[in-house]
Structure formats: structure tokens, C-alpha cells
TrEMBL record:
The keyword rRNA-binding does not apply. It is found in: Membrane. This is MFS transporter. It comes from the Archaea. The keyword Metal-binding does not apply. InterPro entries: MFS, MFS_dom, MFS_trans_sf, MFS_Vesicular_Transporter, Sugar_transporter_CS, Tet-R_TetA/multi-R_MdtG-like. Keywords: Membrane, Transmembrane, Transmembrane helix, Transport. Coiled coil: none annotated. SUPFAM superfamilies: MFS general substrate transporter. The chain crosses the membrane at residues 21-45, 57-77, 89-108, 114-136, 148-170, 176-198, 218-238, 250-275, 287-304, 310-334, 346-371, 377-397. It comes from Methanoculleus oceani. One of its GO terms (cellular component) is membrane.
Length: 403
């Protein structure tokens, strides 16, 4: 009877804090807001930039600075969350995102835009590293793949809705309101995170500082890094160059191109929770990661060989599924690698870093090759790399003995 008393008199916030499902909702909301704000700028900036005298090269810098900040700050933010706890970093990240969004609304020079995008990248490093680590801290390891898949599905939803919301607000409310209204919403989400108590995830001071690298062999970490970089690198090529290919080959309009990318996002949002659930219940990382990369190469080839836009969209849908299968299992595997030293912040700081490496390298590689090869050849080369890395992943994962 005595042991039951504390449970009986727990407050409602305590019960919410103790619920992994409530934590999942918070993390999904945070990730969704980050990606929606990320996409908000896509339809707005090209129309607003001429007023500032901004050319195409500066547009690339403004968009690229986000990935650069994510690359630089993800590991430090993850390690910091191991020291001070997850919730403080999530709250700070959301407030920084609100500040960055408001800065976009008041920007009158290119320097303002660059500063705003840089703050946005730092905020993403904080919220993603701490948010995913919080999921790993509070979730049953046997369901972590599914939970991570659900969290990542918020990326697709935010990616689809962000440009739509941005375009509608810009058309009917004007440039400043396009950013001020979402800034208020983001700040409200940050305060919501602050209001809901969650389990403290700090390391005790006597246990030493959390390490950036896991103890033991580094081959498992390298295998995760390769899988994550290959997936994000594929997105890094598809995002800037597939629209050019669709317009040149099929005279696709911006709206049609947007629909094709919506197909990609929807495929990922459907496949990621499913891939996570399959991994949790049956394992099969060798088939999901190795086979996912290999089939992603096949889907890329199919997209380039498709004679109609509808068949291209079908191949893109398949690509979203196969890339998701390759990505999601790496997230619980990273948690297992770092769990022994209590550094889940470091684990997902690494995840963000690996993902941003591929996301940054993809466009640069495409830009180097674009002057030498036609676009279909670039995508076919990418497909060949995916097939090779998928085969290597199949062999390496079998050697590592992952479930």
C-alpha cells in the first residue's frame, strides 16, 4: 500500500511528463515547426530578393548557411544537452527559431537575411539534437525505431506545408506578416515545452564529461555515418537538380514540380514509421539499410528512364520509401552505440552532423559535375554510388552482426 501512494498522488503534469507518447508529441511538434519554418522561405525569398538587389549566388549562400550552422553546432549542442538536460536546449532552440523567423520579417539587407538563417541553423542544431536524444532517453528501446520514424515523418509534413503556408501568407498578408505570425506560433511551442515537465536527462558530475566518440570500435559508427550521409546526400542532389530536370524534360510548371516533391515527402512520411516498426519487431538492418540504399539506386535509374511525368512521380515515390528504409534503422542503432556511456545527446549530435554533411555535399558535387555532364548522367552516377554503397553496407552489416 505504501509504495502505491506516490503514484496515486502524482499530479497531471507529472503523468504527462512520464508518458513517452506525450514526449513523442512534443518532439514531433518541435521538428514539424522547424521544417515548416525552413520551407516557409522557399516561395517567398525569390520574389522578395530583387528588392534587396540579391542575385542567385547570394540566394544560394542564404539557403546554404542553414546546413553549415547545423554541421558546426550539432555535436556541441548534443554534448551540451548531456550536461544541462534536454528540455533547456529544446526551449532555447525554439526561442532562437522564433527570433530568426522574426528577423526574416524585419530584414532590409542581405546581412540581415544571412544572420537570420544562421540563427535558424543554430536553433535546429539545438532542437534536433536534444529532441531526438530525449526520445531515446524516455522511449522503450524495443520501440525506438518506430518512435524515431514517427518523429522523422514530421519532416515530410513540415516540408510540404511550409512552402504552401509561406506562399499563402506572402500573397494575402505581405512579407513581414509572413514571418511574424509563424514566429509567434514557434515561441508559443517553446513555452509549451517549458510548461510540460520532462524527466531530467543530465549526466551526474561524478561520471565525467560525455564523450563525442563512443567507447570501443569505431566501425559501427562509421557504418551508420555512411548510411546517413548517403541518404542525405541523395536528397542534396535531388532537391536542387530534379526540378531543373523536370522542367527541361517535361516542361513541368512550378506547381507540378511541387506536387512531385510532395509525393516524395508523403512517401517518406508513410515509410519511416513503418520501417522503424519493422526494425523494432524483426531487426533486419542488413535488408533495410543495405537493401534500401541499393533499391534507391534502382529507383533513381527508373526516374531517369521514365517516359512520362506520372512514371517519374511513381519512381520518386519509390525513392522516398527506399531512402526511409535505409535511414530509420540507423537512429536506434546510434542510440545503442552510445547508450553504454549515457551520451544520447552526442549520439544525435552525430546524426545531425552526418546528415548535414550529405545535405551540404550533394549540391556541391552536383554543381561540380553539372558543367561536365548532363543532368540524367549525374543522377545515374548517383544511382551507381547508391548501389555500390548498398552492396558494401549489406556486407559490413552482416560482419557487424546487427539485428
Amino acid at each position: 500500500m505504501t509504495t502505491g501512494e506516490p503514484h496515486r498522488f502524482r499530479t497531471l503534469p507529472d503523468r504527462i511528463a512520464a508518458s513517452p507518447d506525450a514526449i513523442l508529441v512534443l518532439v514531433v511538434l518541435v521538428i514539424f515547426m522547424d521544417m515548416m519554418i525552413y520551407g516557409l522561405l522557399i516561395p517567398v525569398f525569390p520574389q522578395y530578393a530583387p528588392r534587396l538587389g540579391v542575385d542567385e549566388s547570394v540566394i544560394g549562400v542564404v539557403f546554404g548557411i542553414y546546413a553549415a550552422m547545423l554541421l558546426l553546432f550539432s555535436i556541441p549542442m548534443g554534448l551540451l544537452s548531456d550536461r544541462v538536460g534536454r528540455r533547456p536546449l529544446i526551449v532555447v532552440g525554439m526561442l532562437l527559431l522564433a527570433l530568426a523567423t522574426a528577423l526574416f520579417g524585419f530584414s532590409t539587407t542581405v546581412a540581415h537575411l544571412i544572420v537570420a538563417r544562421a540563427v535558424q541553423g543554430v536553433s535546429a542544431a539545438a532542437t534536433w539534437s536534444a529532441g531526438l536524444a530525449l526520445l531515446a532517453d524516455t522511449c522503450d528501446p524495443g520501440r525506438l525505431g518506430e518512435k524515431m520514424g514517427v518523429a522523422l515523418s514530421a519532416v515530410g509534413l513540415g516540408t510540404v506545408l511550409g512552402p504552401v503556408v509561406g506562399g499563402l501568407l506572402f500573397e494575402y498578408a505581405g512579407y513581414t506578416a509572413t514571418f511574424l505570425l509563424p514566429a509567434v506560433l514557434v515561441a508559443s511551442v517553446g513555452l509549451l515545452v517549458l510548461a510540460v515537465p520532462v524527466r531530467t536527462c543530465r549526466r551526474e558530475g561524478g561520471r565525467g564529461r560525455p564523450g563525442m566518440l563512443p567507447r570501443g570500435p569505431l566501425l559501427p559508427l562509421a557504418a551508420c555515418a555512411a548510411a546517413i550521409v548517403m541518404v542525405s546526400g541523395t536528397y542534396g542532389v535531388v532537391d536542387p537538380y530534379l526540378p531543373v530536370y523536370l522542367h527541361a524534360t517535361f516542361s513541368a510548371s512550378p506547381a507540378t514540380i511541387g506536387l512531385v516533391f510532395a509525393v516524395l515527402a508523403v512517401a517518406a512520411a508513410i515509410a519511416q514509421p513503418a520501417a522503424g516498426k519493422i526494425y523494432d519487431r524483426h531487426g533486419g538492418s542488413r535488408y533495410l539499410i543495405g537493401g534500401g540504399l541499393l533499391l534507391s539506386g534502382v529507383a533513381s535509374v527508373a526516374a531517369m528512364q521514365a517516359p512520362t511525368l506520372v512514371l517519374v512521380a511513381a519512381a520518386v515515390f519509390a525513392l522516398g520509401i527506399t531512402l526511409s528504409c535505409a535511414l530509420v534503422p540507423a537512429m536506434p542503432i546510434l542510440a545503442d552505440i552510445y547508450r553504454g556511456q549515457g551520451s544520447q545527446g552526442a549520439a544525435y549530435g552525430m546524426y545531425n552532423t552526418f546528415f548535414s554533411v550529405g545535405l551540404s555535399a550533394g549540391p556541391f558535387a552536383g554543381a561540380i559535375l553539372a558543367g561536365r555532364l548532363p543532368l540524367p548522367a549525374i543522377f545515374l552516377l548517383q544511382a551507381a554510388v547508391l548501389v555500390v554503397m548498398g552492396a558494401l553496407g549489406w556486407l559490413v552489416i552482416g560482419r557487424l552482426g546487427w539485428r
